[in-house]
Amino acid sequence: MTDYPRSHESPKQTTDAKSRLTRRSFVGSVAAGVTAAATGFAGAAAADEGEYETVTLASGERKTVTVDDGETLENVLYDCTAPDTHVTISATGTDWTVRNIGVKGRVDRKEAVFGVADTGGNTSTIENVYLGDGASDGHRIGLGIWVAPDHSGHLDIDGVNIQEMGDNSFYCSAPGSKGGGTVDIRNSYSANSWVSHFRLAEGTVENCVAVNDEQHKDGRGVWAWSPGSVEVRDCNLVMNGRHYAVASGANGSGSTVELSNTAFSTDYHGGLNEVDGGTIDVVDEADRRPEDVCPESCPESPTEAAAGQ
């Protein structure tokens, strides 16, 4: 039987700066086992195919749902259409699974929607998730998936749609400086997020699409941090002259990127950026133009994701 998380609501007045789960504060929460103001926990049985629970957040509400060792969170739609709402899914420990999750409406705070890490050296999974409604306009409002530095295992991310975030869509580079865990991202879509779309220190980006246009903000398509390596395969990086398609290296340390069968825009300074000793090796150049198309197995609406369709 699959564990099914339930959520507790948090009144507006209990939400303050100390309770927020940002990419920085989440580091402490992993180490100390502390979650933010409102928490959920694993509970009853999984939904039948196509069924899902809807959790509606009230105006001003912030909700955090926790997923621990061996637990599964699945088939939930979080309705964040009311003003000043935010949901965070905090998944730590090891061998956990998050799947079939939809977030409806724009999140409104400088916090991660997913704050995750496999801290037991095993494999955890995020699959079939929709965050495509994005975040409200503003500096660093909204972060899609934040992988904490303590991540020491492996994380499989498959079929995740994240758009219009102010602080990265897939922010998976922090383990490179501490835990050393790896991340594979497949069949996923990111559009119009600032800083970067796919940011990681070691792992794979496969059959993914990154897009910059005029809808929100612009970020690097793939940004590889130390130590590497990062393999980019069968992807479309549609930058429309607004940022680099691939960047390697940051903060004084290099990384390595291997590109194969990946179509990318070259109209922004050639499309590739090597800094701080970073390298990008195009081993198999794609004979096509980059296309803005959502991968077939990636959800395109919150209800589609929550229903597992």
From TrEMBL:
Residues 1-19 have a biased composition (Basic and acidic residues). SUPFAM superfamilies: Pectin lyase-like. Residues 1-21, 287-309 are annotated as: Disordered. PROSITE patterns: TAT. InterPro entries: Pectin_lyase_fold/virulence, TAT_signal. Signal peptide: none annotated. This is Right handed beta helix domain-containing protein. It comes from Halovivax ruber (strain DSM 18193 / JCM 13892 / XH-70).
